[in-house]
Amino acid sequence: MSGGIILSRRGLIRAGALGAGGLLLSGCDRLNSSPGFRAVLESGEDLHKASQRLFGRDALAREYAPSEMSPVFRANGSREVADAAYRALLAQGFAPWTLRVDGLVARPLALPLAALRALPQRQQITRHDCVEGWSAIGKWQGPRLAHVLDLARLRPEARYLVFHCADRIGGAPYYESIDLVDAFHPQTILAWRMNDRPLDEAHGAPLRLRVERQLGYKQAKYVMRIEARATLAGLYGGKGGYWEDSSGYAWYAGI
Amino acid sequence: MNGPPPAGPEPRGGDLVRRHRLSTRIWHWTNAVTLLVMLMSGLMIFNAHPRLYWGEYGANFDTAWLDIGATTDGRGTLRIGALRLETTGVLGVWTDPDGIERHRAFPWWATIPSRYSLADARIWHLAFAWVLAGGLLVYLLWSLANGHLRRDIHITAREWRPSHIWHDVRDHARLCFPAGAAALRYNVLQKLAYAAVLFALIPLMIATGLAMSPGTDAWAPVLTEMFGGRQSARSIHFLCAFALVGFFVVHIVMVLLAGPFNEVRAMITGRYRVPREKAPVP
Fold first, then answer.
1. Of A228, B1, B178, B220, whose CB is crowded by the most CB atoms within 10 A?
2. Domain edges within chain A
3. pTM for this prediction
4. Between A and B, how many residue pairs show a Cβ–Cβ distance under 8 A?
5. Who among A25, A40, A255 is closest to B215 (CB)?
6. d(CA B6, CA A248)
7. Nearby residues of A212 by Cβ (< 8 Å), 6 or more positions away
8. Quick one: which H or E segment has residue A174?
9. pLDDT in tens, B97-106
10. What is the ipTM of this complex?
11. Site from B98, B219, B227 to mutate, A interface, most A CB atoms within 10 angstroms
12. Residue of A nearest to B118 (CA)
């Protein structure tokens, strides 16, 4: 092999490396918008859910001491609700408000705040992990979702609980959903109290879902209605939540 | 040496010999692509909240030890503790290919995707995480079985001696690389670097990544606690990522200095031309 050939090959490698850098970027962007490639990447979500359920189906999220709480609990997403009916309820301290529980249940419910407060309460100091990367530790109180579902008596074909919320983002209603494993988890509560005070508007008054082993966007605020469903298909974008529909965030948000 | 032990006489300068095993070559390139995707999608995820904290919690009202941002008059800054650097054009404030000034931490050319999307970056990052973890596990088991770890990575008592390490450091500083059969063995600095990547940096990336998952934290709280909390795990994740970038830079420089064609060929085809011994300097 002559030196000349080596040099030209070296030149080729160098040019190739530079070209590869540019190609890599545009290539990744092209792959990112290719439905087939995205489907492969998104199948990772099934693996996440299956592995988390395998290792920790009934595991409890860590709970903290009052001394470990965040001095300020950041509010994110909707911090205000524009809806006129909501504003009227807020002004009245949610006295006329009821939580509707319907869909695939034997006994649809309309529960006022007083009824939710009268159910056995669970209090937990947990860490809220936002998908963006930040965390805040706060204290939550409310009845277990399981108690409410027992009152409403889920029909056997029910597989998901959908939380319909009062807030809208960019005109689209916020909603979220969980499956029955998370719905009946002991730490899954309908919180009406946060840090020893009734929930404020920024954090989701009058009622916020706490599903402690998942990220912040699953913790639906301003919950107005809980609907039991057999499938998430046919509801809004069909992916089971506002962020799932609008931006492609994972429905299973335990990672 | 990476290939099977030589049956015949020791290879001499100029010989074309078998160098890297198939397992090493497959893992090397899979891992190179995976780490690049992990880094670039990870930088995009960082962009969603460009602040790092120590401890269990940390958000905008808490004290960050590192943040990348923009000043009110539009200058990009990187702050680490009390140290503040202006980074306009690269970090915090930069211009995208359409000429629009963006106020985000890492620039478009360093992220996957190049336009801001936390959701898409997470899809890439969390899918390739399986390739990274699975690849490392299979490679380590394979290398344990075929003797690669014992023969090539294991650092012997003799090599641990400070005088030996110092000798190797001096050789590297003088860009004096071994020739002949000695070039077929990893020197102690190489072994230390490869062992650090295999047994410390990538495992730490995986462990701190898992420690950030609220699902995993429920059934394996020891992982998050071990790092001193979720936000500490996130900080360590970021620091290890940049340690891997540091490894990558040194690795590339060494390949370029040692002869990129021969080195890259060895990692693709497995064949390596043994460097010729230089005539002794009088």
1. A228
2. 3-50, 62-247
3. 0.91
4. 146
5. A255
6. 54
7. A61, A124, A126, A185, A187, A188, B214, B218
8. strand A172-179
9. 999 999 999 9
10. 0.89
11. B219
12. A132
